[in-house]
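User: Can you help me understand a structure? I only have the sequence.
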Amino acid sequence: MDFVKLGSTGLDVSRLVLGCMSFGDPSSGTHPWTLDEDASRPLIRQAVEAGITFFDTANVYSAGTSEEIVGRALADFARRDEIVLATKVHGRMHDGPNGAGLSRKAILAEIDHSLRRLGTDYVDLYQIHRWDPTVPIEETLEALHDVVKAGKVRYLGASSMYAWQLSKAQHVARAHGWTPFVSMQDHYNLLNREEEREMYPLCADEGIGVIPWSPLARGRLTREWGTETNRSGKDAFGAQLYVEGDRAIVDAVGHVAAARGVPRAQVALAWVARNPVVTAPIIGATKPNHLSDAVAALEITLTDDEVRELEEPYRPHAPAGF
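Assistant: Let's start by predicting it. Here is the structure, written out as tokens:
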């Protein structure tokens, strides 16, 4: 496993991030397709043994049970100082007022709840899961700065927003002497490349690390178009992300993969990882081969002709995932 710096920071991270939304109590009411703790632990151990040191979860994943499972597994399988542990805040965690969002009250409460569930004194990367238009960005950024200064968080990241919003946040943070964001977790894959227009030039200019989610388009790039899985049939959010016109791209991935004699997942992930703005794609795993394919994808160098074949069918999309 290779390691790179996260953006312009001094933080070393593995070239793959294990996304942990797949791990959680399936009866929690949020993600019925998730793996329970017994099924999750072997995959987390496999990731550690493969050299992955970067793990990403969120307070809202399976009502907090993802954080619990990940925290216990990493305590057993890894050294805390060698792990880069990331989580997120924004989603609704309880009914009633202040149960979601990026107010000072919510952030200060949720970081403590996340630390308790993860079984750690600090998280390496604390990310706002979405932009909160109901809260002044000054309030959010000052609260985030305070959790950094309290030693509960090492770095701050953002996720899934417009480039102008990230630019505004960085300007406000610097104007007040607060901690800026060092990473962007965004939606990017062969089926949705809209981040290339504004977000990625901004991240390159600002030295912001990029850790894209859903690099395999929730598995759509790993199989023939129209094939349904346990997750795809229950993933209402994922159903909103892609359109029928994307079939030509999926077919192109299949053609390139067949010519190389490798699984489609390796080709699709290799395409994402080749972008010089991308620090490390976030990969999900519910089976051992999902991890082995992801590691193998880092060894693939696509030719110019293959890249043209993969990219030619793309047509502009509306931004999706915000």
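Now, to help you interpret it: Strands lie at 3-5, 12-14, 17-19, 54-56, 84-89, 123-128, 153-159, 181-185, 209-210, 282-283. The chain has one domain: 3-217+262-304. Let me know which part you'd like to focus on.
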